[in-house]
TrEMBL record:
Transmembrane segments: none annotated. It holds the Pfam family ABC_tran. Keywords: ATP-binding, Nucleotide-binding, Transport. Residues 2-238 form the ABC transporter domain. The keyword Transmembrane helix does not apply. One of its GO terms (molecular function) is ATP binding. This is ATP-binding cassette domain-containing protein. The keyword Hydrolase does not apply.
Length: 255
């Protein structure tokens, strides 16, 4: 469980995050949504320790990150998996080498144990016959699967995904969303996803945090988001005619 309390972060006197308080639970896919510039990336970067807040706290399973010793910080880093926008694979390395990278970096496991683990996660993301391919030989969806395999190879407690669906067609995006959700449930990971994709919100939004101008303007589940009359959420999520229709259909069905 990640608990965020009264988080403030700014740059050069410009306040970006203005007192965010929320929680992210294990075994749930939590989504951060909001307009461009609302502070989603700054928030995600704060959660993974790339930004230091001026005020407020973030705790991971009860441990405050500001209290971490250097050794605890190292351990905590190993409990984090990241899926970056655009996958961020090493172009000159094979799929196997990409996925093995965190194991080589952080563990002293023998090569055959590492290979077993790599094969296990590659199988989990349905990429068992791609060990020796280079990223350029894979489709965008397959690259994303490799990035997910690499993110879970260390068996993380926390998984952070930055725009995991960017550049993917809607079908592939849904497959990736479902894969991330399955893995989250299966291994009880605390997963936080930064997204613009309203399909993801409707599909896997077990918790949704809506940011507006650096403030948490709303939070709830994908079911709540259909019913809410919060003006800012309605304006943002239902700006598209399609989603407006989906919402009307949902509300009619549940009358
Ligand atoms: N390192 C930085 N230095 C100064 N300002 C920054 C820095 N990082 C972000 N900002 C500012 O913080 C604000 C929020 O940016 P952020 O990238 O978090 O928005 P976002 O919601 O992720 O937007 P998008 O959806 O377009 O990615 C912006 O005004 C941005 O210019």
């Amino acid at each position: 469980m990640i608990e965020v309390k009264n988080l403030h972060k700014g740059f050069n006197d410009v306040q970006v995050l203005k007192g965010i308080t929320t929680t992210f639970e294990p075994g749930k896919t939590s989504l951060i949504i909001g307009q461009s510039g609302s502070g989603k990336t700054v928030f995600l970067k704060s959660l993974i320790g790339l930004h230091t807040p001026e005020e407020g706290t973030i705790s991971y399973d009860g441990k405050l990150n500001i209290d971490f010793t250097l050794e605890q910080k190292r351990e905590w880093r190993q409990e984090i998996g990241m899926v970056f926008q655009g996958s961020a694979l090493f172009d000159s390395q094979t799929v196997q080498e990409n996925v093995m990278f965190p194991l080589k970096m952080f563990t002293k496991q023998p090569e055959d144990e590492m290979l077993d683990r790599v094969n296990f996660v590659l199988q989990r993301v349905d990429l068992e016959n791609s060990n020796f391919k280079l990223p350029a030989e894979l489709s965008g969806g397959m690259q994303k699967r490799v990035a997910i395999a690499r993110a879970i190879v260390m068996n993380p407690k926390y998984l952070f995904c930055d725009e995991p669906n960017s550049g993917l067609d809607p079908n592939t995006a849904i497959l990736i969303d479902n894969l991330v959700q399955e893995i989250t449930h299966e291994y009880q990971i605390t997963t936080v996803i930064n997204t613009h994709d309203m399909n993801s919100v409707m599909e896997i939004g077990e918790k949704i945090v809506f940011l507006k101008d650096g403030v948490k303007a709303w939070e709830g589940t994908k079911d709540d988001i259909f019913k809410t009359d919060n003006e800012s959420v309605v304006k943002f999520v239902y700006s598209s005619k399609l989603f407006k229709k989906v919402r009307e259909a949902y509300l009619n069905e549940t009358k």
